[in-house]
Amino acid sequence: MNIMDFNVKKLAADAGTFLSRAVQFTEEKLGQAEKTELDAHLENLLSKAECTKLWTEKIMKQTEVLLQPNPNARIEEFVYEKLDRKAPSRMNNPELLGQYMIDAGNEFGPGTAYGNALLKCGETQKRIGAADRELIQTSAINFLTPLRNFIEGDYKTITKERKLLQNKRLDLDAAKTRLKKAKVAEARAAQLNTSQPEENNIMSEQEVRITQSEFDRQAEITRLLLEGISSTHAHHLRCLNDFVEAQMTYYAQCYQYMLDLQKQLGSFPSTFLSNNNQSSTTPMQSVSSPSVLASASASLPSVSNSMVTSGLSELKSSSGSRKARVLYDYDAANSSELSLLADEVITVYSIPGMDSDWLMGERGNQKGKVPITYLELLN
Q: What DSSP state is assigned to residue 286?
């Protein structure tokens, strides 16, 4: 037998097998043929695998949206990944905003209150952008990649073996159908007293035994693969913990950056309004640390505003005066206020009926209101 004859016979056999499976599948759908059911344990494993695949895809896609909200950027990164090329470096949104603020601050002048504030805000935004970039990179490696490997690797293997199991099951049921038909034909021949070759039954019974053995073996292979889903869940749990840790680090960094920025800016609304020649309003209150973040990240330094507030409250309740060190430069918004220079020491005291966020300050013969967020009381 030459290779061509062998190939022709193989194609014919494959076509016959495919036709037999198609007929069996159609008759099952029409309720005209019996179907071998999988055992309950295997069915449960299949259901668990499908559920894992479904939710893994949803979590993975939504995580990608969370980390990169821009759909065009996600598509671009996907294309570069498929081409096995590195995506071009570009600024993310916080970095771009930070650069705009820095450019604007330089344009208005670092010596002005507004320009100086823009420069400080811009640097903080760029630091947040760098932290955001680190979060995306860490999450992609420790969280998204393992999920994607499961979808594109393990689950594809499961799907392939499950399809083979389905084919083996169709072969088995088709063989059972042929055996059943052979027995019916034998019984009819016996009633008519005609001879019926026993070879047909023997061949059909042998075919059923062979297909049953192949089906059982494939069911065992599929079962072993499906039981690995529990290990997949354990692995994804570790990846989830890594993702949460990366997020915690990111938000803790952002919180600390904003605390530092607030410390640098101090009473920013008053400074901003002074640049627009408007009357001064109540300075921005210090942001207190949320209890959840404080418990989740005990290593972060706590805000000392409560101590300052306590000391100033004590000063307001008394009629005396105290020395205070100026923490940041402050430009007076009008003649009722006193301009301040960082690190200078002035005398402060309270006047009855005065706004709780302000004190009277004296420097030599100069006198005026000063915001308390710019001061550190001295003993």
A: P
The answer to whether 204 and 175 have CB atoms below 8 angstroms apart is yes
Closest by Cα among 64, 67, 20, 288 to 171: 20
Total Cβ atoms within 10 A of residue 209? 11
| Count of other CB atoms within 10 angstroms of residue 282 | 13
Rounded to whole angstroms, the Cα distance separating 20 from 269 reads 80
Q: What are the pLDDT tens digits along the chain (379 aa)?
A: 566 555 656 666 667 677 778 877 787 777 777 788 899 999 999 999 999 999 999 999 999 999 888 777 767 666 766 667 776 778 889 999 999 999 999 999 988 889 999 999 999 999 999 999 999 999 999 999 999 999 999 999 999 999 999 999 999 998 888 888 888 877 777 777 665 556 667 788 898 999 999 999 999 999 999 999 999 999 999 999 999 999 999 999 999 999 999 888 874 444 344 444 443 444 444 444 444 444 444 444 443 444 445 555 566 555 578 899 998 888 888 889 999 998 899 999 988 888 888 899 999 899 999 988 888 888 7
Q: Is 371 left (phi over 0), alpha (psi -120 to 50) or beta?
A: beta
Edge-to-edge, what's the strand order for the sheet holding 345-349?
A: 366-371, 358-363, 345-349, 321-326, 375-377
The CA distance from 270 to 373, in Å, is 11
Half-sphere exposure of 241 (CA within 13 A, CB side): 5
- The candidate with the shortest Cα–Cα distance to 128, out of 217, 260, 14, is 260
Facing residues of 371 across strands?
358
Judge contact between 226 and 42, C-beta under 8 A.
yes
CA atoms within 13 A on the CB side of 218: 22
Pairing of strands 366-371, 375-377: unpaired
* Overall size of the chain counted in residues: 379
Q: How far is CA 130 from CA 62, 168, 233, in A?
A: 22, 55, 32
Which element (helix H / strand E) includes 28?
helix 3-29
CA dist 133 and 137 (Å) reads: 6
pTM for this model (two decimals): 0.62
Q: Specify the DSSP class assigned to residue 152.
A: I
Q: Compute the 3-state secondary structure of the chain and give helix, strand, coil in percent, each to the nearest 5.
A: 70, 10, 25
Cα–Cα distance measured from residue 284 to residue 1, given in angstroms and rounded to the nearest whole number? 93
Residue 189 in tokens: 């021949």
